Structures are given as structure tokens and as C-alpha cells.
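REVIEWER CHECKLIST
Item 1: Sequence provided? yes
Item 2: Single chain? yes
Item 3: Sequence as submitted:
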Amino acid sequence: MRKTQKSVRRFTTLTSAVALSAGLAAPAMAQDNCQLDGRVLPEGCDQGNSNTVVRMPVGENTEFDRTAVTNSDGFVLSVDGQALNSDQRFEDQVRETDKALEKSGVQVKYDTLGLEPRLDVTIEGAPARYTAGEVVTLQSRMNYPAFVERGEMRIIDRGALGGPRTLSVHPVAPNGAASVTLPEGADVVVVHRVYDERGRYDETAPLSLTRADARGLSDVEEGSDSTLIRRIPVNGASVTVTGNAADPGSRVEALGETTEADAQGNFVLQRIVPRGEQEAEVTLQQGGREASFAREFDVKPIEWFYVGTADLTYSKSTIGGIEEDQTTGRVAFYVDGTTVGGTRITASLDTGEEDIGDIFSNLDEKDPASILDRLDPLDTYPTFGDDSTTVDNTPTSGRIYFKAERNGNHLIWGDYRSTVSGAKYIRSERELYGAQVYLATPQQTESGNPRAELELYAAQPDTLPGRDAFLGTGGSVYFLQRQDITSGTETITVQVRDVDTGRVIDTQVLQFGRDYNINYLQGVVTLTSPLLGTGNNNLVQSNLGGDTVTNLIVQYDYTPTAADLDGFSVGGRGQVWVTDKLRFGISGQSDETGLGGKQEAYGADILYQHSENTFVKLEYAQSEGPGFDSSYSFDGGLIVDNIAGAAGEGEAYNFEAQVDLRDLGFGADGVVGGYYEFRTEGFSTLDYQVNVGSGDQTLYGAYAQVDLREDLSFKAYADVLETSLGARDQTIGFELEADLTDRVTLAVGAEHREKSTDTGSNQRTDVAAKLSYQAREDLSLSIFGQATVDDDGLGELNRYGLGVVKEWQSGWSLEAEVTGGTGGTGGKVLASYQRDKNASYYFGYELDPGREFTSNVAGVDGGKFISGGNRIVNDRVRYFGENSYDIFGARKTLASAYGVQFEPSDYLTYDAALEVGRITDPDNGDFDRTALSLGVRYSDDKTTAQGRLEFRQDRGTTSGTNRDSDTVLVSAKLRHKFDESQRLVFSLDAADTQTDESSILSGTYVDLALGYAYRPIDNDKLNVLVRYRFLNDMYGQEIDGVAGEGPVQRSHVLSLDASYDLNEHWTLGGKLGYRLSETAPDASSELVTNNAGLAVINARYHLVHNWDILLEGRALWLEQSELTETSILGAVYRHVGNHVKVGVGYNFGSFSDDLNDLVHDDKGMFVNVIAKF
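Item 4: Structure as written out by the authors:
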């Protein structure tokens, strides 16, 4: 039986429920004519607990009440045992400053527990593409400058000879700016790096300088963060200065920084400051006059926030005439703080209410119900009328969370993301639940790396890793195979591979928001720039379709349907820099899901990094298991080929070495390097698969790229692939490029290729030349040709063509190429337009003479068209769109994506997106896909609302497989404030799916909730809570992790709670609840009606720090059983000190006040002890 566990964040509700379980005896009544008038009792009134002395801890920076404090008012306040009976009015300088700040509309707040360091870099001015020689101003953006010693902007060419090369480094102050003249480079990016006093550094993700920054950031205080490497420990307090009354557009100085008020006079500035005494100085312009304030505060090294409860209940109940004793308990707490030594501790625990013998027996197990509690607040009232929100900084899929962190080191039990990387073959980047340890030494190498690092994890995954690979289509929209993607789990990279050997030549990790966006419901990835699928690293082309392929790799986690992941995952990596240049590392991982056996891999590696482009790498890895399944798509995800993992046991060796010629003392730029790889059958990792039967693979090669003179460069390469089955593929080539004049460049090359098997060998020798002419700065032309001079069985490859690159000042650019020869006509055209940040368009056409497809397709290849763009029409309207049309013989594919956002006012926003795909194939079947998304958002000072409709339809067959499916998803939320005393909330989540159940179960799900709260702010006499919930679950949920469809239900639940204070001691309360429900054990069974109602009326007596007494009457009726029961419950609780309550009570009925409790076993006596802190 699955039990719903309440979250530790609901202590207020829990304590109130306990108070409703109080009493038998009552103390002598106080005068009943004493009613509170504001905060002062009428003269002559004595409180019932006027002789009770309570010692309570006194908080800091408190103000005394201006009303009289006397012994006869019901309380005696004492500090250190001394009673205070006079109106003490103390105003210090700090409070005077606070009042002056408040009067000026300025607030200064600090938080020691919610630190979020941010680091980013932006380019001043309107977003644009920049070229060599232009001057750009790079702006540093960060909120923790007090922890930074220095900063720099690093200009890097990711397309340089031999790999990324740092072209220049420019010092910059924290939140300062640096002007940089861009150097020449193939792919120039900027990285912002900052250092602390020990040399540890934080670094941003690369920001391209060759294309416009589409993020639209304009102000330092926008809160953006693009940190890629974080090694600087940050502690202390987050100080936030806000204001709403500065002169519009005026400068505001605060915390040693300068910002600017907006058109309404609002401003905000946040900084993280270290521990100790601090001063926040604020200077602003108001009414043309300057106002200055200085607020002192002390950031203490130790500060704790904690709350918790322990509940023990002994009960004696009667069921069918049989007496039964039961002892249950529950322990729950939350704690967050910093120790004397600087260790940050964050922890929570909620055992749930269990038999006392089992309360701590399953703390290490996953609790699916606790996940639902955290994600879905509808199990209580949707609103309590106090505008409160929930923040969960103890994410856990179980009952316990613990994190200890100091100086970047941490120990976690809960939910986390594994980050095992650094090796070529073994890596793990997943969202997991379990334990994780990360340790790093404070000592650093010259390059800022920790001398030693260790990461270990052990987890119980409830998701599986998915890996989708897409050949670049020339577009930016890609459909994932699954739609139930776990948010935030994706890792997206662009990977360049050699067509013949499969060797990974280059990998770039994309950044969310900057390089791509993802729709988790639809499973759609949208890149900010189109991605081409093929290319050439060399002048001589060995394959008609290009010698390299560019793939988009999307790795993510998803929850499988109809499967129980009863497995365990462990892994980790440790590495040590024994010198500033020599590193040793070991990695390992083991994944057991219960679905396909255990996949294990481990390895060791050595790195000698002499300089940025001089290194030696050696790595060994071994794997065993069923391998990693993946998928591949040639058309952006419309048709997917699933690829089974390489099952078995295998091993791999990798050796790489490269030397920068300048490190050897040569005056010319250039690199010389080589590699060797060996992989046996059965070896399987995320990026490499060697299937059994394909033979062991051996790859080796060498290369050299040298600038002999400023106007002359040389390149040579040799690559060999061998298998144990006797196959061999060898390529050797060289190139020479010379600047004949300032405008004319000539490149020549030759390549010899030999392919052999155990039955014979074939070979071919090709030569190529390319003449380039830079007619103007904005126009370049080229002519190229390739011819086979010797052929022995491989077939001649003769190609020729023309190319042009043109740019216009209006923002348009054109790249075009047309080729002919062996294989037929080919060509590429890409026209693009960029106008600041307001608009960008592109149109392209590609005809690849060497394109192939896995299915049997008849006819002539007509090429592929693609067009798209986005535009910001004005401040209210923006849109994007992309279309691709692929004519591959008789097979025709059309894919389209459109989106628009319209803001008719400052309060209202509409958005819509449409994705359409169609494949027409008379041989393999037609296929259509339509995905539509509509959304609306509204927000003002009283109402916040949002809604979204998602629809996806698949129709057709592919290779005989029926792929018909329909999915509709609806989500809506509304929150309205009638006035300061009344709130209304509404939420709706609905889904209807009809699929083949490969990814999402077929069924219908509707969850609707409506809540109303009346809670006056000027008195507490009357409080009303109303809740309605409709649940229609025709999917069937898994129970206790057991695979398969579970119970289904359709229910309406209406409840009303109200309380009225007769005076300061007596409260009348009541509850009405009614449930209309139909349930069945599974979707195939007939629904059975089960309606019930509940009425409760109670009277409570409350004497602060003394007694709580309850007398309650209940009535329960079950319609289908024609049964009505009544019950009376009485209980009394006595407070013992500040932290303990002891109660005893008796329930004269057999049922509780929970309509979901179908077991009537509650009659009898109970004793309850509660500890709270």
C-alpha cells in the first residue's frame, strides 16, 4: 500500500492538525469579559495564564512595542531573569538609518544562506557580427567582486592550427570593461576568467564574436550566469539593495558599484560580501537632490536556520470487537547553516508516519510519493491566503537529504548531477539520486587546476539515459525520439567525425539559452544557428559527400513506461597533477538498471600538458555489458534508426601527442602530432561502439601543419584504419598554400588512398588545386578542381567548381558553391541576413552528389532546400520560422517550424509555435507529424495567470511499422488577490494520449484544483479555506515501484474549513467535505462508484504555553453502503517547556477526518507526545 508522506515544509499544517487532536481536562477559566482591543487588553482584565513564566529566546535587532507592558496584561517579559514592566523605547543609529532608507523607498537586505554566485560576459552595443580589426567592448558581469583578485578577457581561436589557441589576454576589473581589437581567426570566441588570491579561477562558457549574441542582455544586474568552471569558494552574505523612488535614469551608487534607475525610478543591485563587519553605502538622486545613507551590519561566520518535529503516538483501538495496540511515530526536520570551521550544512529528513519499529528502517530507499508531494501542492489547500511560496533547496527523491560543503568540496545524499569527465572514453553526466562526494585540494597548478580531485557517486536511478544523434540538416530544429524528457538533464554537443574511420575529430558542448533551447514536453531542440551536416578538413576530397560529418548529439534522461528500474549505479573519477604539467587519472562506472543487465567500464589515463597545444595523452579503458543503445536520424528526427549497443566485453587504448613548434624554439607557427587507437570487439561507451563480428579496430596516423612563412603554409597527414578481419584503409596527403599577391591565394594538394581486404587491394591518387581571389573586402571568389591521376579499382573522382562569398553593408551575406564531375552536379547556397538584434534570415540549398540513405529509395536526388529566420518587429511582436524541403529521389521530406510572441500590453503575452513534418515515400510509406503549442501569460499587481496547450500528432507508417499517435497536453494556472484578505488560485494539468506506448502510456489524465482563502490581515477572528479538486486518472499509476498499470480513478473532492474566535481563548471550527469518486484496479476493469461525505464541528480552548483542549463531533456517510456513522473526539494537551507537548484523547468513533482513509480503525484511546524545535 502506498502511503503519502507529508513534506517537512508543512510544519504549520502539521502542528495545526495536532492541535485539533487535543483534550479532556481544562484549567480554571479566566475572566470571560476580556477581549483584545487591537493589542491592548481592557483595564482590569487578567489573562488565564498570568502567573505562568515562560523563557523564550530573544531575537536580534528587535524593537520594543510602544504599548504598555505590565504583569496584569497576561505576560511577564524577562531578559536574563529581570522583568521588564516599563515601556522601553530605544532608538539606535542603525534603526534611524533603516527608517531613513524606508522613507526614501530604499531597502537593504542580506541573506547568509541563499548565495548564488553569477559570472557572465556581454558585448556592449547592439548585437552584431564582428570581423578582424574591429574594436569591441567586453563587459564583465558578476555579483561577488569582493572574492576576486583580478580578471581577464581571453580571446581564443577555436579553429586554430592544432586546436584552440589563446590569441590575446586583456586584464579587466570585476564588473569593468575592456576594449579589444579582434585578431584574425577561424572561430574567435571570448572567455571571461576571474581569479582569487590563491590563483583559483572561475570561467564563463565561450561567447562567439563571429555571430550576434542573441540573449538580449543589456544590464549588469539582470542576473544572468554563464559560468562553465567554478572553483572560487564564495561565502558570507548576499546583500541586495532595491529602490523605487530614484529619479528616472539617474545614477545610483551602492555597495561600491554604480547602476542606473529605470524609467519608473526602480533599481536593484546585489553583491555577495565576505563575513565580518560591513557597510552598505547608498547614494541616489531624488527630486534633483542627492541623498546618501550608510547602513552597517555584521555578517557572522555562524548562522543557523532550523525547524523540526518529532511525533510519538500510542493508541488502543477496537476493530470488530478486537482490541489492538499500536505505536506510531514520525520525525521531520530541516536545517541550514554554517559551522565555526566554515562548513555549510543543509539537511532535511521526513520519515513519514510509520510503526515505531519501522520508522528509520527505509531512509535509504526511494520514495516516489515524496516526489509527488514536492511537485504537487494540491494534497493540501491550494492557497492559505498569505502569498507564501515554497523553495526547495533539499532536492531528494527519498526521505532524507544531506549536503556538507566547504571551499568547493561537498558530500551529498539526495538528488544531484554527476559530472565525471576528463577522459576520452568514460564519462557520466546524469541526474541521479543517492550519494556523491567531491573533493579537491586547495593547492593549485600554474594553470589554476586543483592538484588533486576526486568525485564518487552511488545512486538508484529512476530514469534511463537516452542518446539521440542527428546529422546536421542545415537547419536548427531537431525532434528527439522521446517526449518525456526530465528537465535539466540534457547535455548537447556538436561532434565532428571522420566518415571513414569514425574517429571523433572535434567536440563542442553547447550552452542552454545561448546555443540552444529545448521544449521538454514536445522533445524539440532548437539551435540558435543552423547546423550543416558535412564538410572537409582537407583540400583533396576522398568521398563525394564530404570526408567529415557533423552530428548533433543529445544525451538526456527519461522515465521508461511499464518498467521497474530496480538497479544501482556507481562511478567516479580521481585525478592528480603530480607536477604543473603531468596528470594521472582513473575513471569507472557501473550501471545496472534491471532491464538489460549491468554495463561496466573503467580506465586510466595520463596527460602531459606542456603548453596549450603541446601535450601527450595515454588512456586505457575496458567495458563489459549490453552496451549503450542510441538512435540516429538523417532528417532532424522525423525518421529514427535505433542502434543497439555493442554487447560483450572489450578494451581500448588511446595515445595522442602533439607539439607546438614554438615550444621547440622554431620561429614559425605550427603543430606536429600523431595518434594511435586500438579497440576490440564488444567495447562500448557513449561515443564508441565496436560490435561483435566487426573485428578489432586499430587506428593510427600523423599530421603536421606549419606556417613556413607569412605567405606560405604546409600541411601533411596520414591516417590508417585496420581491422582484425583483414580490412585496411590508408590515406596519405599533403597541401601547400601560398599568397601570390595580397589578393590572390593558391592552394595545391595531393592524396593517395589505398583500401584492402583479405581478398585484394585497391588504390587511387588524386591531385587538387584551388585559386582564391579577394576582389574586395566584402567579396571573394574561388575556383577549384580535383583529378585522379592514378586509379586501381577505387574509381576515379574528378570534381571541379566555383565558389563566391559576398557581404553587403545592409546585413546580407551570400555563400555559394557549384560543382560538377564524377557523381553529377552538386552545389551549396546559403544567403543570410543579420540586422543588429532585430532580424536575421537565412536561405540555403544543398545538392550532395554522394548522399546515401539507409532505406531503399528510387529516383534522382533533387537536393535539400532550407529557409528560416527570426525577427523582432517591435517591442510587442517577435517571430521565427524555418522550412526544409528534401527531395531524395521518390522520397520527399518537408519539415517546418514557426513561432510568434505577441505582447499587446505590459501585462499580457501570447505565444504560439508550430512544427510540421511530412515524408512522402511510395516505397517505404508516408509519414506526417504536426506539433502545435499555444500559450498566454497575464500579470498585474493582483492577478497572475498563464496557460499552455500542446498538441502532437503522428500519422503513417515507416518500413511497415505503424506510428500513429496523438498527444494533447493542457496546463493552466491562475492566482488572484481580491484584496489583502482574500486569495483565489486555480490550476489545471491535463493530458490525453493515444500512442503505441513506446514512450508515453495511452490514457487520459486531468487534475483540476480551485482554492479560496479568507484571512483578514487586521484581525484573526474568522478564517475560511475552500478547496475543490477534480482528478481523472485513466493512465494508472505504478504502486511501490511495481511495473505495470495501477489503479485508475475519477473523483471530485470538495472541502471547506472555517474557524471563528469567540475570544482570546475559545475558537469554534468546522469542516465539510464531500467526495464523488469512481475507481478500478486497472484501466481494463469497470469503474465502481464510491461516494462519501464528512462533517466536523469542534470547539477549542487555547491557553498560550499551557493547555490545548479539543471537543469535536464528526459525521461520516457512505452513500453506496448506505452507512452513516457519528463520532465524538476529545483530547487535551499540556505544554512542557518551550519544546514539548503531551496529550491524551479518545475517539468514540471508528473513522478519522480523512476521506481518503478507507480503513475504519480509529476508535479508542491515544496518547501523543510531540517535540518541536
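Item 5: Key structural point noted by reviewer: The two ends are 32 Å apart (CA to CA).
Item 6: Recommendation: ____
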